[in-house]
Amino acid sequence: MFSTFKCQIFLTLICIALCYEPTKEDLKCFNDYETEMKCSLSSKRLQSCSGHKLNITHPVSNTFEKYTCIFERNHHSDNCECNVTVEGFVATEIFNTTLLEGSNVLLYKTFMTSDFIKPKSPVLSVQKIENGNFNVTWDDQYEKNGIFFEALRINLTYGIKGGHKNISKTVPNTVRSYEIVAKNLLPNTNYILTATMSTDYNDHSIPSDQSATVEFTTCKSI
Amino acid sequence: MMKTILLLAVAVFVSSTPVTTSVKPHTDKTPARHTDKALLGELVDELIVAIKDFPKVLPKEKLIFLKDLQMNGLDHKEREVLFCQVEQELKTKVSGLSDAIFDHFRTDKKLMRNLNMYNKYHVKTCKPVDEKQDEIPLHDFLKKLLTSVKIAFNQVK
């Protein structure tokens, strides 16, 4: 009898293990507050992306915009990812998503636009200026200006290439540039600089992906 | 045998029930100040663009007149009433017009969407516009509205 009971437990556990149960943490969506909404599905038990999709309903005024986001494997991250193009975002609008495997509903999840904004990564540029300092400028990658861009801030991080200690500085996006003072750096040394962007719309809770690294080298004597 | 099947069935049932979650549930309560700031700020941006794009001179048949709503010297509550009436005026008299010059005022465009979301949070019932009110051209209506929205935005800041 006891072995029958063990068998029952075993079979139950097998089923639980094999049946894919996504949790809310498995489904993540972000919007760039311009035109793109990107979603990813990550789970160790997710064998294949195929057949998985997200039906998205977006109430706009008195109508509903509908999108279908079909997941595909991202070979860099090993997650299932999909994206849709939206005609502009408004801070408090809602996206209702239904995660499907075939016609089987796995999960419902609702997102409010401002809460899941993940800004675009900035593109950095560094130039040595006459006084020997380094002028950092960036392109926030957004076409328009306005309140959203004023609410962005850039988080700059720089340090010795190959080193372990970094310096971080946060400045409003509207400042457009930041000067790294050379006398605070070591002479004749290679430095690397990266940055992320975040927005006041969600209290800076979701930073952008990290920018590409830029390098700069200090003079032999500072 | 029956116990095994029953356990398996329960396991399958439990694992196949869809999970319903919200990142942050949509609420009818007044949103955080930074949300009001975002909605009003975006409305300012969209109005500036709409006014800039709108032709200064129009042929007679394209002249649109809206009620000359009281937009100056309002307190917060009066401004909430105003914005709701503004939405109604624009929706009924401009949003449905086919000419491209009225594109900004379509209900799926950001100007009207921001106005709509602001009103959803702030006004339960829209007070009807006084039909005896005088009317002014759309361009003048928008300029007066922009001033009022800027004041509201600065008060949230």
Task: Name the features.
heterodimer; A: 222 residues; mainly beta; four-stranded antiparallel β-sheet; 15 strands; 9% helix; 45% strand; flat; B: 157 residues; mainly alpha; Ig-like_fold (chain A); FN3_sf (chain A); cytokine receptor activity (chain A); receptor (chain A); membrane (chain A)
What does this structure look like?
- The complex is a heterodimer of chains A (222) and B (157).
- Chain A is mainly beta and 222 residues long.
- Helix content of chain A is 9%, strand content 45%.
- A four-stranded antiparallel β-sheet of chain A has the order 1-2-6-5, with no helix packed on it.
- The mean pLDDT of chain A is 91.
- By secondary structure, chain B is mainly alpha-helical.
- Chain B has five helices and three strands.
- The N and C termini of chain B lie far apart (69 Å).
- About 6% of the residues of chain B have low confidence.
- The chains are: A mainly beta (222), B mainly alpha (157).
- Chains A and B meet through α1, β8 and α2 of A and α1, β1, α2 and α4 of B.
- Chain A: This is Interleukin-4 receptor alpha N-terminal domain-containing protein.
- Chain A: Keywords: Membrane, Receptor, Signal, Transmembrane, Transmembrane helix.
- Chain A: It comes from Cyprinus carpio.
- Chain A: It is found in: Membrane.
- Chain A: It is a single-pass membrane protein.
Poorly predicted tracts of residues of chain B: 21-30
**What percentage of amino acids of chain B are in beta strands?**
5-15%
Name the beta content range of chain A.
35-45%
Widest sheet: strand ordering of chain B = 2-3
Helix count, DSSP H or I runs of 4 or more residues of chain A? 2
Describe the strand arrangement of the main beta sheet of chain A, using strand numbers.
Answer: 1-2-6-5
Note poorly predicted spans of chain A: none
Major sheet description of chain A: 4 strands, antiparallel
N- to C-terminal distance of chain A: 83 Å
Structural class given helices, strands, pairing of chain B? mainly alpha
How helical, in percent, are the residues of chain A? under 10%
Major beta sheet summary of chain B: 2 strands, antiparallel
Oligomer: heterodimer
Radius of gyration of chain A: 23 Å
Elements of chain A, N to C (H/E): HEEEEEEEEEEHEEEEE
Amino-to-carboxy terminus distance of chain B: 69 Å
* H/E series of chain B: HEHEHHEH
Average per-residue pLDDT of chain B, rounded, comes to: 85
Radius of gyration of chain B: 23 Å
Q: What is the typical, i.e. mean, pLDDT of chain A?
A: 91
